[in-house]
Batch of 3 targets.
Target 1
Amino acid sequence: MNTHLLPALAADSRGQDSSRGSFKARHRRRLLRADLLTTAAWASVAAAVALWLADGGATGFSTIAGSFTALGIVAGLAGMDLVLLMLLLAARIPLIDQTVGHDRALEFHRKLGKPSLYLLLAHGILIAIGYGMAEGLDPVSEAVSLWVLVPDMWLAFVSIALFIAVVVTSLVAVRRRFPYEFWYAVHLLTYAAVATSLPHQFSVGGLFAEGTWQRWYWLAVCIATGAALLHYRVLEPIIATFRHQLTVSRVVPVAPGVVNIEMHGLRLNELAGTGGRFFIWRFLAQGLWWHPHPFSLSAEPLQFDAAGRGLLRITVRNLGKGSAQLAGLQPGTKVALEGPYGIFSTAARSRDKVVMVGAGIGITPLRALLESTPFAPGNATVILRGRSDQELYLGQEILELARERGATLFHLTGQRSARNTDSWLPESATSAGHRLKDYAPDVADADVYVCGPAAWARNVLQDARAAGVKEDQLHYERFDW
Ligand SMILES: Cc1cc2nc3c(=O)[nH]c(=O)nc-3n(C[C@H](O)[C@H](O)[C@H](O)COP(=O)(O)OP(=O)(O)OC[C@H]3O[C@@H](n4cnc5c(N)ncnc54)[C@H](O)[C@@H]3O)c2cc1C
């Protein structure tokens, strides 16, 4: 048990009363922001096509060869716009992160992978057919002549090969066969793919010729995307690491294979790392510094003074080689951080009532959420699931918090049912016919936070839906990439 961590926030900001009833309005504003961002994303594709229409591109349809070329140009513009959107979704821009969450942004990013590749391939093939027909060449000879004779075109061919490599290694079935570092290294080639695709966009064809406003628009979009990536993925993490000066203060075993890692640092009041959000951590010790680990806070940051000196805590389970090594971290190890990210926090609340369901190491961000998210006594239910009491990590702290804050707490331990694989409950509860709403009768009118192994979480979400919980009340933190 670890009771020395105290909430950093003053009691009223935990919002026993202050936030009550205001979640709906905040939630509506967030949904509106999400709608606006989605509209802006699709409008950018429309704008790319409009650039070409405004340049009289549709006149190309007067011949068959011209039609192929015209379709090829439209496919290229739309494909490139989707690639830029994908980069923006992966840039960890706070507006996007706080509106849809890091995982939803990445999910959308992944969904755009195949369509953008298909459009870019179509671009190459249609242009080769169109130009070839105009010059009396077959598409393959035309492609060779483009490579050899047209400046910057060979770079475009390299670019498409790189895009294929990135998309193929990102397909779930392929990705799972390789270590994260391999996938990450290949994924970095996206930047090379974009860089090698740019020269021919500005040097070949008239659409982005010097002096055109289309050229300025396209340059502005490309530069803004690059600047967002540089700022949020490179500069911000470096600045945050220097600003907060995090250092490991102690590593405390919690259960077999699970440790609390406590870090002290500066200006934690500027960190905005509240309950349930996660950071990407790098422990700057030999052999570890190049491992970026996403871990959620398992307690609210504890502040010692008004200058923001204080403590942070994460709880880590040895789910792989890298995380197992963290149990041996020495006090004094410096820590680099990126974040905070995600909306597995009060930011996602839409109702006054809240139900938190966690299993295994997924329990730990719920502990931080329980500590800080506003609710009136009686309006929160916490359900912890593990094979044994020992697997209910931080269970004693959660018990104390639940008592202090007036939350109802259930410990559900035991093996899962071998017969009923749709159940997230232990065998005893499954055979008694229990469902989520038996533990949380008001669940249909609550926000439901779920964190735990993927298959188990899917079953909880399914049970919640069956109990009448709508999609926008469901909040699920994935611990996988
Ligand atoms: C949003 C989020 C929050 C998480 N919070 C916690 C937590 O509070 N406590 C906890 O114990 N675990 C948490 N995890 C899971 C944890 O990040 C992984 O179990 C851990 O990084 C595995 O590292 P490894 O080196 O032991 O595993 P390996 O499989 O050997 O991983 C090798 C490399 O892949 C990286 N990697 C592995 N898993 C992930 C991942 N999910 N996302 C990105 N990179 C990854 C590692 O950092 C490492 O660099 C969280 C995951 C996510 C996505």
Note: The two ends are 31 Å apart (CA to CA).
Target 2
Amino acid sequence: MTAITAAPSSDWPEDALRLNAICPYYTMFPLDFPLQQLAASPGTSRVLDPFCGRGTTLYAARLAGLPSVGIDINPVAAAIAQAKLIQVTPGAVVRLARQILDGGMRGEVPEGEFWQWCFEHETLRELVTLREALLEMTTPTAAMLRAVMLGILHGPRNKNLPSYLSNQMPRTYASKPAYAVKFWTKRDMEPARVPALEVIERRAKRLLDAAPLAHSGKVYLGDSVKTLGGLRQKFDLVVTSPPYYGMRTYVADQWLRSWFLGGPPEVPYGTYGQIARQPNQEAFIQALGEVWAAVARCCRQGARLAIRFGALPSARTDPEQMLLASVKASKAGWAVKEVRQAGTPTKRNRQAEQFGKAGSAIDEIDLVAELTGLPR
Ligand SMILES: C[S@@+](CC[C@H](N)C(=O)[O-])C[C@H]1O[C@@H](n2cnc3c(N)ncnc32)[C@H](O)[C@@H]1O
């Protein structure tokens, strides 16, 4: 049994944590949640997150020097999470971007008012060229460039050197086209020319210059239960956070990033495969229970399962009861050791508030369970 070092994030130099912030995602827990769980499980040899989102758990495992596996059904999440496991130099990322752009224009520029207002003409052509080329590439450098692109795709316009390719927009979610066009036209806010390569270069250096050593691991794009069924590895620590009950529009909110990954140039309103699309609470509890059962089958006896969960106030439900019911429904041998408030995180750290539309504060809870019985 090797002891692992999982110091709190405040003990790490700021630049070692930058890669974790490569791209915002609608919900993410603070790095300290998985780091605390790692510190509480000194014998851990492999870490799992079956709802990995942007890969915070995987980054914590990287800091602790451990291999990890993440699963997510959202291509945007999987693409960001993948970057958390990759070791490349900023130079390699920039060289690849330059090589693609030097190869000349390719791909079809999407048409319509939104696109004309969101990106300056030349910037859009570069963006489309990079998108088209990256759709066919699977190397680690390409995966890192893809995640860098997702992070610089949209965000606020700054006074100094630009950090984002788009016209004024939030960075956490993409505005809907009609709203965005109205916003820009009303203010006469024409998009500025932003040379993609320059932004990529600045961002890659910032993120990767001091990134910690990567360890083996993999991110799977798919449904957790189905994917877990095909995994051979055994895990001793699982740190995760399923979608909060009541959240529905997260796929649509990432529509511009979804487009960059090969999706249509419009807002997709489907919620394919998302566990939160269940018709009612009972079905949601049941679906979560199936995940905890599938997780148990991939874990060693004594494994620790740590779950952060919450529900939107509008869902009018008790997240603690829901989560406990789902663990019970799994009938998988998880013995609940602890349930407590997730503390009082700052507004920035609250998953539901990062989502931006949660309204009043919601209760978030942390549940810790241990695999004691034999899984079914
Ligand atoms: C609360 S977020 C996880 C955030 C993560 N802790 C982070 O720090 O980024 C929940 C994730 O579960 C994913 N998800 C929903 N249904 C899923 C399913 N059936 N299989 C795998 N992932 C799923 C969503 O796409 C979302 O990324």
Note: The chain has a mean pLDDT of 90.
Target 3
Amino acid sequence: MTELPATTTRKLGLVIDLDTCVGCHACVISCKGWNTENYGAPLSDQDPYGAEPSGTFLNRVHSYEVTPDSGTAQLVHFPKSCLHCEDAPCVTVCPTGASYKRVEDGIVLVNESDCIGCGLCAWACPYGARELDEAEGVMKKCTLCVDRIYNDNLPEEDRVPACVRTCPAGARHFGDFADPESAVSKLAAERGGLELMPEQGTRPVNRYLPPRPKDRLGGIDLLAPLLAPVAEEPSGFFAWLDKTLDRI
Ligand code: SF4
Ligand code: SF4
Ligand code: SF4
């Protein structure tokens, strides 16, 4: 059993806007790129160009079609990575102390040299946010790009998680939820930011902004004029053209 800190000085995390995410997967690719080349063991792939490719990712985007009681169906793209829970069961279940939550900023990390690949943390995480790297035999998870956000070698505008820096839709935001005046705290408060599965009691730090309902058109069917049946007998100019062509 590994202990969690009673409290953390900061609560760094992400706000993900489900209203503006377009499911482009740019965050998935930039996450894989950064985390394969930098902190810890690379994120391996198995049979990447074969019939059944698989691999390790710290961030995945799932897409769902949602049909409301009234109105049109809506496609919701749902990016998912570790939520850096305050009451993280993946940490308390770890038998070696490899999984831990940092006191200074609340980031949940894995010390890979102490990880024995037992998979207990993946079993304990209710969000499926941990992946065992098949080639390396160690547990991987979102690091909140800890090696970018404090990295003095990077230009200041790059000292945010790779997924946040990359998202072309501006759907991902990074900051400190312990500060009620931070941009992420205000955004979550203004837009009704949601915890994922609060009934699990994990107190995730990340927040999701719910998708707004699509504009209703008041019963007007925009496609109706285009779908109207075509007259079997041409009239007007087309009738003249038809007759002219018949004579040729
Ligand atoms: S989302 Fe899962 S892996 Fe991340 S801190 Fe919570 S329980 Fe642990
Ligand atoms: S914060 Fe970093 S490690 Fe986490 S999902 Fe984003 S890019 Fe991946
Ligand atoms: S990069 Fe942004 S818009 Fe694209 S899938 Fe990720 S969160 Fe959504």
Note: The CA atoms of residues 43 and 56 lie 5 Å apart.
